């Protein structure tokens, strides 16, 4: 599959609305490869230790499975991911959207298992992050399954990337998911077929419903920001949960509710 070149209309849409849908980022054959690798992470065949946590802890009531499985830095455990199509194509598109100086900041897996029905609360990613001087950041959210309203597709609030970050608090317990006040009435739901993705700005409000279906909702996220800002983060001890995925904090005190 050739590299995807965005149109001016797509780039302008992202700048105005804070999100963009890109269809068919990876092929059907590639989807199968990523699903198999993803399932090795979920099953524990690829052991990740403290890099795995339940993002939906205390938000859902599931006892046999994680409410929302989050695995940080999968590429640390399978470095070949960095040379595979998804990371490379997503990086190229992020640079088209926000500048040639963008590099990968981190990657993660977020899965909603069948019938877990646990929401990911409304939030802006920037509230989780260190307050860096250059706010440019783009996250690619790749769906390996049919992401629907019932399985937990992404919702975005158009234009929120151009507004202030709203006050955030912990949704259920300190160290868990963050949340802010927003509603579906403000948002747009984006259903995706397998292999398609969205890009969203670090300040774009987003959320997803729980998975009430019999299928998985496997999402693979890669985040990008200027290389200089990545170095700034690391020099200040911030690595997006590389050592402990469950150690979430409201890093930017400016946005505390």
Automatic annotation (TrEMBL):
UniProt name for this protein: Phytanoyl-CoA dioxygenase family protein
Xref: Pfam families: PhyH
UniProt biased composition (Basic and acidic residues): 248-257
Renumbered residue ranges of the record's region Disordered: 235-257
Recorded GO MF terms: 2-oxoglutarate-dependent dioxygenase activity; iron ion binding
Stored SUPFAM superfamilies: Clavaminate synthase-like
Highest taxon above the source species: Bacteria
